[in-house]
Every structure is written in C-alpha cells, then in structure tokens.
C-alpha cells in the first residue's frame, strides 16, 4: 500500500509549471561539510531512480542530497545500486534472506521487527539520539522502525497524509457551517441539507478495500484507542483487535456508513479516484482521501474551475461523540528508513561515514529542499519555510499536513498484509451492513495471532 501512496505525490510537476522551473533549485540548507576519516567504498541500495524523481519530491530531494554529499566527500566512493520500487523490494528481500545486505539500505516498517531479530539491521538507538538534528526530528515517524525501545532506522523520503477531509468552503457555508464540522453529529445535520440539494455530504470510495483501512479507520481508530494501543500491536505486547476501544471504533464506522446518509450510496463499489470526481463535479460537498488525491484535485480544479479551487478547505475527521483521544489527529508517516548492515560496526571509520550520510539524507538539507521546492515534509523540521512562491491552497495544505495537526499511524504500514487482507475484506462487508463490529474484530485478531 505504501508504494502506491508514495508514488502518487505527483503534483510537483504542476507546481513547477506554476512557479517556473527556475524555482527548482538546490536546498537552502547545504549538506554539512563534515571531515570524515574513511576513504573507500560505501555501498548504498535504494529505489529513487531518475524516472521516479520526475515529479516525486521525496525522490528528487533524496537524489539531490546524495549528489551534494558525494561532492562534499570526494574521497568516499558511494556505490549506488538503484532499482525501481517493485524490483527493489524483491531484491532487498533476497539479499536479506542470504544475509548479504549492502552497507546502507532502505528498510520497510513491516520488516523491521523480523530483520532486527535476525541480526540484519543495526540497532541505531544511541547513534540516532546523538544526531545533531535529533531535537528537530518528528518522533512519531520512528514508530515503524522501533522494536521495543530500540530504533533501527532513520525515516527517509517524504510523508503525506492518508486521511484528509477536502471540502468546498462555499457549499458548507451555504449549509450553515463557516468551517468543516468538528463532530459527526453536525455532519449528519448538514447531510440532510445537502440531500435536499441532491448532493452527498462526503464522497468516499472503498472499492479497492484498502481505503476504509488506510483513509478512515486508522485515524478514527486512534480517536478511540490512542497511539499506545497500536504501538502495542506492533510490538506484540498485549493489545488486541478485540479490545473494547477498537471495537467501538469499528462500531462507529459501521454506524456512519450504514445508519446515516452522509456518504455516497456506492462507496463500497467505487474507488477513491471515482469518489474524488464526485467532489470535483460538485456532486459531493467534501471528500475523504489522501495526499495523492489532494494533488489531483488541486491540479484539476486549478485548471478547470478556478472559483471552486479558491474554495478548497482542509479538515481532520470529525470527532465521534464517545471518543476521548486526539481530536486533531490525521495519519501520516514515512514508509521506509535508512538502515545499516550490522557488519559496519567492524569498521568504525566506515560506520561514521554511513552515519553522516544518513543524517544528511534525512536532515535539514533534505527537509528544506522538499519544503521549498515541493511543499512536502520529512523527518527533520524544516523550520520557518518560505512558501510564498506557492499558491495559497498549497501553503494551506502544507501547514495542515505538517504544522497544525497531530500525527497518528497508518495501520497498513505495519504488521503484515495477511492481517490486513482479512480486516479489509470484513470492513467492506461490515460497511454494507452485513457483519457486526465484534465479528470483524474477532477475525482480525485471529489473523493477527496466526500470522504475526
């Protein structure tokens, strides 16, 4: 799932056109000119190909910082093995199985626990905490790469939300709301008004089954459970899908999709791509999707409907009446981290070079580049970023994504696909009114115990 989301942050090309290509320049913060003792080869494997970097801010930023780091350290031969994403995932798994990983590689969150236990990833806890940029790291991004209290990677590339409410400010003002409602009860009230206008309050698409999990439940669930519950699931330290708080989140999801008229009737048949077209066409007053949908809507409305474009607003999911956690949360994360082959510990100078590379590839040189050129964020806080060359909607979405909201985790970036395939199928059945929340929870827990 993560690959699709990362690959879909493609609005950079349109932004470049609106800003002028001259704006696409080197990072405002340069790579640190560190004096390193190591001289020789340092092997790096990643998937930021030149093709992927065209319009993908994270990959472009990564490649840019790699080039700057090489220039700053001419005595180190950074040997890159760069593969397309699908090929990378296959090849890195093959190398891991053979215990033949490169010095530096990118690890997925779902592999962290197993690879750490197998001795394939170095424990970087003390190294990361000693980083000169540590105080500016977004702590929540480390969650997929933790085993207990130990950290096994520097979260890399850019993060984007999977759960944003995109709404038409004018349509909601006509319904009596100057901003998007903060509670689901208010949304239900608005839905009655919109029904009289032959408009859906919110468009949503779960035709691919994953959308209810990634784009809805992983944020709504956090409102009931808080972050410790999901971290316990990741750590396999006691939490269960059958816990009361998570069952309540499932019950609320069932209620909203089965018992109310908030959403389009065909939400389980259409994809998020279809649903966002309902919003673009004015057949829905809001839409729930991810950052990749925002970029598409941005481009479509800017070109074809400037008035509607100017009325784009962003909001978090409304808070359920019986939820007590994190009302301002939205799920956002980084799916990969820079990890080290533990064999680097045998050569302290080489390890120091690897540490320096990882710090720069995820530090202020990277974060300022992607912020100022793409209005995206990564592990390190970019500080006060000049976004004035971007339009107001892009500035608003940057601030909504990285400044004004609280982060929570994307469920299906963790654990494994065997668990999520069971939950995703049952969610779709439940949202059709054909399954109870407790049964969905029980099946998910059974899959978890059998496969994790």
Throw out a few tags for this protein.
alpha/beta, disordered N terminus, 19 helices, 452 residues
Brief account:
This protein is α/β, with parallel strands linked by helices. The protein has helices spanning 2-7, 12-19, 57-72, 85-97, 109-117, 125-129, 169-174, 184-196, 210-225, 227-235, 244-259, 272-280, 291-304, 306-310, 348-361, 364-374, 392-402, 417-431, 437-451; strands at residues 40-46, 76-82, 104-108, 146-147, 150-151, 154-156, 160-161, 164-168, 286-289, 312-315, 329-333, 336-340, 406-408.
Share of β-strand residues: 5-15%
* Count of helical stretches: 19
Question: What kind of assembly state do the chains in view correspond to?
Answer: single chain
- Label the structural class: alpha/beta
Helicity, as a percent range: 40-55%
């Amino acid at each position: 799932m993560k690959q699709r989301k990362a690959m879909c942050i493609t609005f950079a090309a349109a932004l470049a056109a609106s800003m002028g290509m001259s704006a696409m320049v080197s990072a405002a913060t340069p790579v640190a000119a560190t004096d390193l003792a190591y001289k020789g080869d340092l092997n790096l494997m990643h998937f930021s190909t030149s093709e992927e970097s065209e319009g993908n801010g994270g990959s472009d930023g990564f490649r840019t910082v790699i080039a700057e780091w090489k220039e700053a350290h001419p005595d180190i031969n950074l040997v890159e093995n760069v593969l397309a994403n699908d090929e990378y995932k296959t090849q890195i798994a093959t190398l891991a199985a053979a215990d033949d990983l490169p010095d530096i590689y990118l690890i997925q969150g779902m592999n962290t626990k197993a690879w750490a236990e197998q001795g394939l990833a170095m424990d970087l806890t003390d190294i990361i905490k000693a980083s000169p940029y540590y105080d500016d790291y977004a702590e929540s991004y480390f969650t997929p790469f933790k085993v207990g209290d130990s950290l096994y990677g520097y979260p890399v590339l850019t993060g984007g939300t999977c759960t944003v409410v995109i709404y038409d400010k004018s349509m909601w003002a006509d319904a009596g709301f100057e901003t998007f409602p903060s509670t689901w009860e208010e949304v239900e009230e608005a839905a009655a008004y919109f029904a009289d206008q032959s408009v859906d309050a919110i468009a949503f698409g779960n035709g691919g089954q994953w959308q209810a999990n990634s784009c809805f439940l992983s944020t709504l669930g956090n409102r009931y459970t808080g972050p410790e519950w999901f971290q316990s699931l990741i750590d396999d330290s006691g939490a269960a899908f059958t816990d009361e708080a998570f069952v309540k989140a499932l019950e609320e999801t069932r209620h909203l999709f089965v018992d109310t008229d908030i959403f389009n009737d065909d939400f389980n048949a259409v994809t998020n791509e279809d649903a966002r077209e309902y919003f673009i066409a004015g057949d829905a007053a809001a839409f729930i999707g991810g950052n990749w949908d925002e970029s598409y809507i941005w481009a479509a409305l800017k070109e074809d409907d400037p008035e509607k474009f100017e009325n784009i607003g962003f909001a978090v999911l409304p808070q359920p009446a019986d939820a007590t956690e994190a009302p301002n949360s939205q799920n956002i994360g980084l799916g990969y981290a820079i990890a080290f082959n533990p064999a680097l510990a045998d050569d302290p100078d080489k390890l120091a070079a690897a540490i320096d590379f990882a710090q720069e590839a995820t530090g202020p040189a990277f974060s300022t580049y992607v912020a100022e050129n793409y209005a995206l964020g990564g592990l390190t806080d970019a500080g006060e970023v000049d976004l004035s060359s971007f339009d107001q909607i892009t500035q608003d979405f940057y601030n909504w994504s990285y400044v004004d909201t609280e982060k929570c985790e994307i469920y299906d970036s963790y654990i494994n696909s065997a668990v999520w395939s069971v939950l995703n199928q049952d969610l779709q059945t439940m949202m059709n009114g054909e399954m109870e929340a407790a049964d969905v929870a029980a099946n998910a827990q059974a899959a978890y115990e059998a496969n994790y």
